[in-house]
Amino acid sequence: MNIIVCVKRVPFTQEVDLEIDGSGRDIRRDMLTYVINEWDNYAVEEAIRIKERTGGGVTAITIGSEEDEEVLRRCLAMGADRAIRIDPGDSPLDAFVISRILAQVIGDMEYDLILTGVQADDSNEGAVGSMVAEHLDIAHGAVVIGVETDGGSAKIRAELEGGTDELSKIDLPAVLTIQTGINEPRYVSIMGIRKAAKKELNVIPLRELNIPEEDLAPRTILEELFLPPETEGAEILEGDPSFVAEEIIRIMKEKGVNL
């Protein structure tokens, strides 16, 4: 089974005090370290596990600069067979443009499954996977927490709201967006990354894809980025239950809640 995994390199922002840059439309990135998008890491692991069960190959794809090749090397170290970086140059990227570019490249490849993460950790958008499926005119499943392939179809378990799951059968080829927790991504050693550095990595300039200009125009324009305003801390109500209940009602009325 031939599987394509779309991955992204994102800034590691946990336990970091973020600052808005001078443009007001991005964060300062000069002091940040970068990692593979968490959801994508699970997608890579799932692709490799499917390959180990069924045979075939895994191709990792990313859109970005030369610095973004480190996530592709990591995918190769995990067990991916091939890696492709699409160089966008100075072209602005939003979810639509990213999906259009990926679909253009993937459309010329042989594949049974396309895996992406549910969302991107930097923008919190979860649109690229379903958009790729729409561009390619194939089926897709979202928030997938289980995959069992069976010839030309797959049984997928998807996470729904309220702690419930949905079991479906989907025809292949298809796009699946993978949720965290579907597996336990394998450890990648330094030696494995060094070996992966010797593997071939194909680079495709965006201009060679001959995508119409109108399809490279972003549909989403970011006008301003700002940190949430600081607010006062929580108010702790103490006393017997009747007093606390009365205080809660009073506060809710002061905040304009109609009771």
Plain-language structure description:
- The protein is α/β, with parallel strands linked by helices and 259 residues long.
- It has a single domain, classed as HUPs (Rossmann fold, 3-Layer(aba) Sandwich).
- It contains six helices and eleven strands.
- The strands form two sheets. The protein has a nine-stranded mixed beta sheet, with helices on both faces. Strands 2-3 form a two-stranded antiparallel sheet.
- The longest helix has 17 residues, at 38-54.
- The protein is globular and about 70 Å long.
- The relative contact order is 0.17.
- The mean pLDDT is 92.
User: What is the CATH superfamily?
Assistant: HUPs
Approximate strand percentage: 15-25%
CATH class annotation: Alpha Beta
Distance between the termini: 59 Å
CATH architecture: 3-Layer(aba) Sandwich
Total beta strand runs: 11
Mean pLDDT: 92
Report the order of strands and helices: EEEHEHEHEHEEEEHEH
Q: Main sheet: which strands, in order across?
A: 9-8-7-10-6-1-4-5-11
Count of individual helical segments = 6
- SS-based structural class? alpha/beta
Q: How would you describe the shape?
A: globular
Cα gyration radius (Å): 22 Å
DSSP helix fraction: 25-40%
Which sheet architecture does the biggest sheet show? 9 strands, mixed
CATH topology: Rossmann fold
The tally of structural domains comes to 1
Low-confidence stretches: none
